[in-house]
Design brief:
Number of helices: 13
Structural class: alpha/beta
CATH superfamily of the largest domain: Type I PLP-dependent aspartate aminotransferase-like (Major domain)
Helix content: 25-40%
Oligomer: single chain
CATH topology of the largest domain: Aspartate Aminotransferase, domain 2
Strand order of the largest sheet: 1-9-8-5-4-2-3
Shape: globular
CATH class of the largest domain: Alpha Beta
Radius of gyration: 21 Å
Number of domains: 2
CATH architecture of the largest domain: 3-Layer(aba) Sandwich
Strand content: 5-15%
């Protein structure tokens, strides 16, 4: 290979923040001068704006995406004999939030799209199943119409794990508006992110909204009265202000990611399996994941040549040491296990250049040549 070595980092936080630095600085100054640092007008406004993104009646800011999942599940009053079914190939918070809420995590294998296969979901439902948590992995919407039909027949609560999928949609309907509730992460790696950490809950249920409104703030009904023991899971006013700035650019940045994903597809399709959108899907490519033969060798080759490739996720959740007592094996999830051996996340962000993409593609071509 004769290509000159080029650095392609996995993230470009500093570069992307520099574009809106003046707006972020102004947001910081406004909060500082207001003297309101917790549960103030910036949070209230951001919650309203986020609800508009999801097309839900309510949205609540919390301290991180795991809290967003946990607080919704806590509201269901789950017992240790109850099960919640989720995907085996997500980040571990999808399952840990179930366990922390007092229930048993259960899993259904995925389809070729990497999301829960509705047929496998149907097989996994049993008498102890109380809820289903489909994950919109990589920012690709799960097959929600089929999942909802199954959940309705079995009288199951549906919580969308939309941590990676803000701005995604299926058949024109936003992710976050399909289930009974949805939880989002605002971690710095997400398309809409805090300058630290944060999370959001979206729902159109008045009862659920009222419960979580208290649950995120020590169970407080008012300043003096707590209705139940709970945690402090509030989203800071300063982070809400930063998020309001970034939300104004969300659509622009999402479109840029989509265009770069489509360009990657054209460059890489001859050599690896690329993420093709299905009918009615609008994916936001929080991660751009290819599937490749000799995955570990390719990852090392890319890194040796300046491309920071990662794997999301190498170990299935039910195979983690923390999940050992659940009793699963890789044989229970043949499709997810196959994908876990082949997946690679390539750098993708709005400031990624065509030169960098061409360099990544040339490396992959040369590797297989």
């Amino acid at each position: 290979m004769t290509t000159t070595k080029l650095a392609v980092p996995y993230t470009a936080f500093k570069q992307e923040a520099s574009v809106i630095k003046e707006e972020l600085s102004a947001a910081f100054d406004n909060v500082l001068e207001s003297g309101r640092y917790i549960m103030g007008p910036e949070l209230a406004t951001f919650e309203r704006e986020f609800g508009e993104i999801c097309q839900t009646k309510f949205a609540l800011g919390v301290d991180n995406g795991t809290s967003a999942l946990f607080l919704v599940l806590r509201s269901l009053g789950l017992k240790n004999t109850d099960e919640v079914i989720t995907a085996p190939n997500s980040f571990l918070a999808s399952a840990s939030s179930i366990a922390l809420a007092g229930a048993r995590p259960a899993f259904a294998d995925v389809g070729r799209d990497g999301n829960i296969d509705p047929a496998r979901l149907e097989d996994a439902i049993g008498p102890r199943t109380k809820a289903v948590m489909p994950v919109h992995l990589t920012g690709r919407p799960a097959r929600m119409p089929e999942i909802l039909e199954i959940a309705k027949r079995h009288n199951l609560f549906v919580l969308e794990d939309a941590a990676q999928a803000v701005g995604a949609s299926l058949n024109g309907r936003p992710v976050g508006s399909w289930g009974d509730a949805a939880s989002f992460s605002l971690h710095p790696l997400k398309n809409l992110h805090a300058l630290g950490d944060g999370g959001m809950i979206a729902t159109s249920s008045q009862d659920l909204y009222n419960d979580i409104l208290k649950a995120r703030n020590h169970g407080l009904r008012d300043r003096e009265t707590s209705d139940f023991w709970s945690y402090n899971c509030r989203l800071d006013e300063l982070q809400a202000a930063f998020l309001r700035v970034q939300a104004r650019y969300l659509e622009e940045w999402t479109q840029a990611r989509r265009e770069k994903a489509f360009r990657y597809n054209e460059l890489l399709r001859p050599y690896v399996e690329v993420p093709e959108e299905g009918q009615g899907e609008r994916c936001v490519y929080q991660t751009y994941v290819i599937r490749a033969e000799r995955r570990d060798a390719l990852v090392q080759y890319l890194r040796d040549n300046g491309v920071e490739a990662l794997v999301h996720y190498r170990i299935l959740i039910p195979l983690q040491p923390a999940a050992r007592e659940l009793g699963y094996s890789a044989n229970d999830f043949p499709e997810a296990a196959r994908q876990a051996e082949r997946i690679i996340s390539l750098p993708i962000y709005s400031s990624l250049t065509e030169e960098q993409q061409d360099y990544v593609a040339e490396l992959i071509r040369s590797f297989y040549a």
